[in-house]
Amino acid sequence: MFDIEHYFEAKSVEDAVRLLTEHEDAEIISGGTDVLVKLRDGKGAGGSLVSIHEIKELHGVKILSDGTLEIGPATCFTDLTNDPLIIRYVPYLGEAVDTVGGPQIRNQGTIGGNVCNGATSADSAATLQTLNAVVVLQGAEGVRRVPVTEFYTGPGRTVRRHDEVCRAIEIRPEDYAGFTGCYMKYGKRAAMEIATLGCCVRVRLTPDGETIEEARIGYGVAAPTPIRCRETEQALAGKRVADDQIYELIGSGVLNEVNPRSSWRASKDFRLQLISELARRALKEAIRRWQNHEAPDAALPGRKGGDQGC
Ligand SMILES: Cc1cc2nc3c(=O)[nH]c(=O)nc-3n(C[C@H](O)[C@H](O)[C@H](O)COP(=O)(O)OP(=O)(O)OC[C@H]3O[C@@H](n4cnc5c(N)ncnc54)[C@H](O)[C@@H]3O)c2cc1C
After folding, report:
1. Domain count, the chain
2. What CATH number is attached to the domain comprising 72?
C-alpha cells in the first residue's frame, strides 16, 4: 500500500492550482509511473497527491491557428506516438517516446510527467530541446511560458514552482516546418531500459537537398540536464551533405559541448563514445529522411497541412 495523506482529483487546471496552493505537501500525479515508484521507496511518503489525470483539456494534440502544435501534458506516450498530427509534423518525437520502458509504461506514463520530473534521461528530452519546445505553466500568479532550453536547473530540478501545473507543451511552426529528425537511444537492452545516452539530430536542407541550412543537436544524459550543442550546430550550417567531413565535424564537435559523468550504468568515457557515434548516425538518418521528402510544411490555417516540403 502507498502512504498517502490525501488524494485529490482535480476537475480543472484552476482546481489543481488551488489544491496545490492549499496543500503545501501535495504533489501532482499524472500517470504516476514516477510518483508511485518514489512513494513506494518512501520518498514523499505521508504527503498528498493532486491528480490531473481526469482533466480532459490536458489530453491530446492540437494545431493552433498560427500552426503551433499544442501537446497536452497528460497525453500518454502511446497516444502521442499514434497521434496523426505528431506522425505528420514531428514523427521523430513519437519515435523517441516509443522507446520508453515497455507497452504498459507507455500506456500510463505521460509527456508532461517526462518533462516535469526534470530527468536528463527522459526520452522526450533531447528531441524537445531541438524543437525549442515551450513549457506552458499555470500557477496562482497566472500563466508563463518557459522555453524548454531554460526549464531545467539541475538533475531532477526545474524552474516549475510548486503551485504550477504544466498545461501544455508548444512547438512553433518555425521549429518543425522543413525539418526532419532522428532520435537515437542507447541502452543495454531494447526495452525497459532508462537511456544510457539519448541523442536527437534534426536538419533542414536547402531546397536542392545538397546543403545543410540548419542543424539542431540535443542530448539527454550528456550532462546533468538535457542540452543543445549550439556551436556544432552552427559549424554544420552551410556544409554540403555529400561531404563525409560533416560526420567527422559533428562527431568531434559535440565532444567540446557535453559534460557526461560516470555512473553505474556507464563510464564517462563510454558515454563520450556514444555521444560522438550517436550524433553521426542520427545526422545521417535525418539527412536521409529529408532527401526522402519527409520534411513537413507548417500547418497553417486554410491548408490541410502536411504538404511535403521538399
Ligand atoms: C518500469 C519503468 C520504466 C521506465 N522507463 C523509462 C524510459 O525508458 N524512458 C523514460 O524517459 N522514462 C522511463 N520511466 C519513467 C516514467 O515512466 C516517465 O518519466 C513518465 O514520463 C512519467 O510520466 P507520468 O505521467 O507517469 O508522471 P508522474 O509519475 O505522474 O509524475 C512525474 C513528475 O512530474 C510531475 N508532473 C506530472 N505531470 C505534470 C504536469 N502536467 N504539471 C506539472 N507537474 C507534473 C509530478 O508531480 C512528478 O513530479 C520508466 C518508469 C518505470 C516505472
Report:
1. 3
2. 3.30.465.10
